[in-house]
Amino acid sequence: MAENKELLLRKALVSKSCGNNLFERKEYEKAIVLYRKAIEICPKGEKNEIAIFHQNIAACYEKLKFLPQVIEECTRALSLNPKYVKALKRRANALELTENLNEAINDIAALCVLQGATAEESIKKYGNLLERICEKETKEWMQNRVEVDVSDEVIRIHFSNFINNGFIEGEVNNNVLNNTLSKLQSDVNDADRCHKIDAIQGTFEYLKTNYSEADEFFAKIVQSDCNKYLKVYSNIMLAITCFRPFLKSREMEMLRLLPKSYERFDAAIKVDAGNADIYFHRAVVHYIVRKFEKAIDDLNKYIELTGKKNGLPGNCYFLTSPV
What is 1-144's CATH number, 1.25.40.10, 3.40.50.2300, 2.170.270.10, 2.60.34.10? Predict the structure, then answer.
């Protein structure tokens, strides 16, 4: 039985070798036939060899520009050998060419882990794909968003409650936000531009009361390596949006989600304990759930950090509906 398996493996390798010769002669369709024959002959326990045969078929399809088949054959190879670097790289390339960017970046991330110290090229590729995903998602968001009348006053009030949000300064209104968004899309020198774009999009969604959509943008930011002000702003926004929909109608649900809100404030403090914005917004949450002593403590902390003896920002967006 062992001899029979060894003989079958030899025959499979001969078929592969003949396929390789055809590949070198650019006879890709004929090479595919021989690689498939190798798969049929090869003992099923030889998973690494069978993975190579599938990867070779993918290489032929790549030359023929049959990208869906490239992805399919690489996937088969990786099901047999998940650490097969060549198959990961080839599938990532095909996924990118077919605009499946999120799947492609997952393969590149896996390559970075597998390649370790030699992953310089993959790391660069990861950064480039991240930029493309950011640009694609921003374009889709701009095209598909439903315009809701968010007044300049609502926007101004929202941003007046933050001393430093990490992505925009000064008096803010619709025009300022949209102009900043357009500028960031072309400013390749800003290392945080993707995260700033997410912050603007998330803020728009929040002010339109699309809280789940807003959360998706802010969640991406807090997991990134961006500037601390932007990360604190996003943690604060996650803290207040997690139970914002239930403020007026479902108090029990709001209280159930309260620990999640406080976790986000704690995360913000770990990023920058000296950021006064955290204590102001947490004080508002304390006030809403009737923890008045804690609210006073946080307000005093805010005043201590800002030196504003006259107290707080002029408006508290959290107590009223933003639109």
Answer: 1.25.40.10
